[in-house]
Amino acid sequence: MNNIYFIGMPGCGKTTLAKSASKEFSKEYTDLDEYIEQKLKMTIPEIFEKHGEDFFRKCESECLSEIAEKDGIFVAAGGGIVKNAKNIEIMKNSGKIVFIDTPPENILKNSALLNRPLLKDKTAIFKLYGERKDLYFSAADFVCVNTGSEDEAKEKIFEILRKIVK
């Protein structure tokens, strides 16, 4: 399988970069969180509220397995995908993983993201990054440091993908 999985913190640019890359390389694009929402007919916050995080993580793994059956798609994964080693294995077995490494202070500079529940408490994003950073790095086949403009990040991603997309 030749899928490309984009991982990283909420607000790091996974969705934007995966969509742009899918257009640039003429590949199908899927957002894992949107896939889960469509399948369960609930938003992610509703799933968490009604069923809890354990239920969500189980659904996330099941949906990732379904998506991994496809070939040649670009997938924007949820920020917590790396919390389950099984998910990393699924992604590794069906493609390559690109970590979009955006420091928390850069995420917080994007005023369009400040309405996200996670980002309302500005200290929480730093804590979460500290908890997940090593998981992201160890899962990643490639790392794209996203500290500049959107155009700069796109060019970095395209440069990485030119080496691996068939």
- The portion of residues assigned to helices is 55-70%
CATH topology, by name, is: Rossmann fold
Radius of gyration: 15 Å
> What is the H/E order?
EHEHHHEHEHHHEH
Widest sheet: strand ordering: 2-3-1-4-5
Overall residue-averaged pLDDT value: 91
End-to-end distance, in Å?
A: 11 Å
Sum up the overall morphology in one term.
globular
- The domain count comes to 1
- Judging by the overall fold, what is the CATH architecture? 3-Layer(aba) Sandwich
**Biggest sheet features:** 5 strands, parallel
- Assign the CATH class: Alpha Beta
Treating each run of at least 4 consecutive H or I residues as one helix, how many helices? 9
Uncertain runs are: none
By secondary-structure content and strand pairing, the structural class works out as alpha/beta
CATH homology-level superfamily: P-loop containing nucleotide triphosphate hydrolases
Report the strand count.
Answer: 5
- Tell me the strand percentage band: 5-15%
Binding site for Mg(2+): 15
Family: Belongs to the shikimate kinase family.
GO molecular function: ATP binding; magnesium ion binding; shikimate kinase activity
Protein name: Shikimate kinase
